[in-house]
Amino acid sequence: MDARVELRKKLLKKTKEQMNEKFAGKEIHIIKAVRLLSDLDSINNLMSENASEWKIRQPSGEAAEAFTELNENTERIATEKKKLMEFIEKEMAAEFPNFSVLATPVLGAKLLASAGSKRRLCLMPASTIQVLGAEKALFAHLRRKANSPKHGHLFNHPLMQKLPRFKRGKIARIIAGKLAIALKQDFFNGENTSKEVLAELEKQIAKIAAEPVTPKQEMREKVLIEQHTEGAKKEPSEKSRTWTPDERRAYFAEKNKSTGANTGAGYRQTPFKRAEGDTWQKPHHEGRHFGGGFTPRGERSERPAFGRNENKSKSFGKGRFNKPKHSFKKF
């Protein structure tokens, strides 16, 4: 009983420490602000789009008053966004002097929100920081063997925007490594070397960007661009287009006549029959027994019944399939 009480006290203490780490730190205000900023972005975009469409129709009377109010609310949301960005920049510079300079304040705040707390983010390895924000793609890679993500939130880093697609993964690894070092400097109260590291990082990325493009990389980039630009404009092919039920029935009926088979996703015209003198042909939908064998209907009666002995037809319990595997003893 004393051990249970002691274990309960330890678990409660650990839970309190985790709650204090998650909600009592100063970084919780940055996390709430950056999440609200993303919500305000989507709301402001929707309101601006509706306001521009409404303005084309030239509202008058009560509609004009509602339109004016909508414009005022849109401006208020834009002002609130600016205030939130200023707050995030100020708090990130105070909490993460090195990290906020290398990652930019808003991007650093998004990485912090994905990690959950300052301690978790600062103790993360560079490989984890690189894919923060790409959790769905990462789990798709682990479960369904999809392509592994090369970057998450780091895709929005200013140093990666003007680079070709096939060089972003390499540069994302470099940026993530520098960010991991900067986070540990901030967590353990190290020196502020952000300007020197940023200048070194820019030189390293410029050197990688100036590297000659191999023919394989050029061809791959060209194929990706064509898929994104011209893929939506192409008309669907004969195989990819959707068939109507009548077209599907006609196709399978013609196929059955030409091949003599009874296939076609449920559109069987005649029942399967065995011709005299022909060898037995197994249909694709039958014969799925243990071991992959198939026994015709006329020959099934010749098999011995499951669980019966060869000498005695009704000797239940004496066949080789009914022998007990384990012996139980009474205690």
Task: Describe the SSE topology.
Layout: H1 2-24, H2 27-56, H3 62-95, H4 97-103, H5 105-115, H6 118-122, H7 126-130, H8 135-144, H9 168-187, H10 194-209, H11 215-230, H12 245-259
Please, could you describe this protein's structure?
- By secondary structure, the protein is mostly helical.
- Among the domains are: 1-95, Orthogonal Bundle (Helix Hairpins); 97-212, Orthogonal Bundle (Serum Albumin, Chain A, Domain 1), CATH 1.10.246.
- It is 58% helix and 0% strand.
- The chain contains 12 helices and no strands.
- It has helices spanning 2-24, 27-56, 62-95, 97-103, 105-115, 118-122, 126-130, 135-144, 168-187, 194-209, 215-230, 245-259.
- The two termini are 30 Å apart.
Major sheet attributes = none
Q: Give the helix proportion (percent range).
A: 55-70%
Question: Rg to the nearest angstrom?
Answer: 34 Å
CATH class of the domain at 97-212: Mainly Alpha
Which fold name is given in CATH as the topology of the domain at 97-212? Serum Albumin, Chain A, Domain 1
Low-confidence stretches: 263-274, 280-318
Quick structural gist:
By secondary structure, the protein is mainly alpha-helical. Helix content is 58%, strand content 0%.
